[in-house]
Amino acid sequence: MPLLTAKNATLVVIDFQAKLMPAIHDGEKVLLNAGRLAEAARLLGVPAVLTEQYPRGLGATVPALAEVGPAVTKMSFDACGEPAFLEAVAGDRELVVCGCEAHVCVGQTVLTLLEHRRRVVVVADAIGSRVPQSREIALARMASHGAEIVTTEMVLFEWLRSAEHPQFRPVSKLIR
To answer: Which residue ranges run through the membrane (predicted)?
Structure first.
């Protein structure tokens, strides 16, 4: 099924950490869109998985996303290298991914999830890197291996499917 569904999705929030975000190109915009995804997931009952790369060095998740849930702490750039992450995303749910950095932790995680034959949807306007070119090349690489590339608005409206959805007003307000 090409369209995303809230009932079969898991939001994967990768490494939005306090010491990393100031270095991310357009970091405020990336964080804003990740926050929109997280709030829509909360409103629509979409489970979320949060990761933190070496929090002792990069700090905890930024406050705007800390309520997504308990973080899976990792040292491996690829979140799939952490058994707790694999447990959190086990099953066949489609994985909607946002995070930093696109060309390191996001990219490696997405490529491994694709190797595991998972449906992976990367939210282009909710991932970032320090250098724009690294982000663009990472998006192209992930797409060439089978990741679907979407925007925040695409996810929200596909999760809703209709203006008659009971959560239409609060979710649509997220993008105004």
So the answer is: none
Q: Which two structure tokens, joined as six digits, stand for 99?
A: 């995070």
Residue 130 banded pLDDT, cuts 50, 70, 90:
very high
SS (H, E, C) the chain: CCCCCHHHEEEEEECCECCCHHHCCCHHHHHHHHHHHHHHHHHHCCCEEEEEECHHHHCCECHHHHCCCCEEEECCCCHHHCHHHHHHCCCCCEEEEEEECHHHHHHHHHHHHHHCCCCEEEEEEEEECCCHHHHHHHHHHHHHCCCEEECHHHHHHHHHCCCCCCCHHHHHHCCC
- Could you give all domains of the chain from N- to C-terminal order, each with its CATH number? 6-173 (3.40.50.850)
Sign of CA dihedral 79, 82, 88, 93: positive
- Note the pTM of the prediction, 2 decimals: 0.97
pLDDT tens digits along 25-80? 999 999 999 999 999 999 999 999 999 999 999 999 999 999 998 899 999 999 99
* CB atoms closer than 10 angstroms to residue 176: 4
- Give the per-residue pLDDT at 131: 98
